[in-house]
Amino acid sequence: MEIEEMVKKIDAKALREEAKKRDIPTRCVTKLNLAKALPLDVVEKLANK
Q1: Is 44 helix (H, G, I), strand (E, B) or coil?
Q2: Residue-level pLDDT at 49
Q3: DSSP for 3-43?
Q4: pLDDT mean across residues, the chain
Q5: How far apart, in Å, are the Cα atoms of 32 and each of 18, 19, 43?
Q6: Number of domains present in the structure of the chain
């Protein structure tokens, strides 16, 4: 599954929470850019919820 497809299934709030845990800036960032900054296994886990 492509990362763009996974991002469509994930809530933005969940992405931001995971990014904040890893000290990734979340201000003025799109969902896709957040997903690209996170490890792929985290994105896959969020998409499968």
Answers
A1: helix
A2: 83
A3: HHHHHHHS-HHHHHHHHHHTT---TT--HHHHHHHS-HHHH
A4: 93
A5: 14, 12, 10
A6: 1
Q: Which domain holds residue 34?
A: 3-48
Please tell me the pTM assigned to this model: 0.83
What's the pLDDT tens digit per position in 1-23? 789 999 999 999 999 999 999 99
Residues 43, 3 contacting (CB under 8 angstroms): yes
Number of CB atoms found within 10 A of residue 21's CB? 10
Cα(22)–Cα(48) distance, rounded to whole angstroms? 20
